[in-house]
Amino acid sequence: GAGVSQSPSNKVTEKGKDVELRCDPISGHTALYWYRQRLGQGLEFLIYFQGNSAPDKSGLPSDRFSAERTGESVSTLTIQRTQQEDSAVYLCASRGDIGGAKTQYFGPGTRLLVL
Amino acid sequence: AQSVTQLDSQVPVFEEAPVELRCNYSSSVSVYLFWYVQYPNQGLQLLLKYLSGSTLVKGINGFEAEFNKSQTSFHLRKPSVHISDTAEYFCAVSENGNKLVFGAGTILRVKS
Fold first, then answer.
1. Residue of A nearest to B94 (CA)
2. B99 contacts B40 by C-beta, under 8 angstroms
3. Is A95 in Cβ contact with B104 (below 8 Å)?
4. DSSP B84
5. Is the pLDDT at B49 greater than 80, yes or no?
6. Nearest-by-Cβ selection for B43 from A33, A45, A106
7. Integer Rg of chain B from CA
8. Pairs across A and B, CB distance < 8 A
């Protein structure tokens, strides 16, 4: 497809379980971002990948959170030993570099509920 | 560090009335500014952006915003709103096109 896609769209898990969230960026976009949106709040930056550079992990809230990206394609965000406060919508965005473009395009998000 | 303040958490307005959603930011360097809209149960969609040049930028759906460097503001305006504009609006700032720092959002409720 032409846009950013994310899967699953919804995920319900039990406290203490691990979850993996997937993001497929727009083809050719070198930059990929993960954000978290808690209920009634704005978006919080989690992690940023740019090409082959070391990712900017400055937004990850704890060492239970990690993310990987293979080349300039798919990324997975993993949350280990989930806690109820991890419940949120996790949004992925990608950005191209053509013409110095600065716009991030967002996927529909994965709604995570930790029981 | 960058920060974004959206001064109103909710803005109720009647259909066909004008609206302004306020956004102020702080940053020690030049920034890029964005407004995104999130319709109920949907993802974020870019409304408009300021990168450089003219301080008045026009976006989709009749929205526009004005960058005011001296007041560090980027308020969003529409001269006449529709019911379909009911959504949550997020202001965001970015240094060098990297990570976005978002405001808390403003819910625009358009009433008939």
1. A102
2. no
3. no
4. G
5. yes
6. A106
7. 13
8. 52
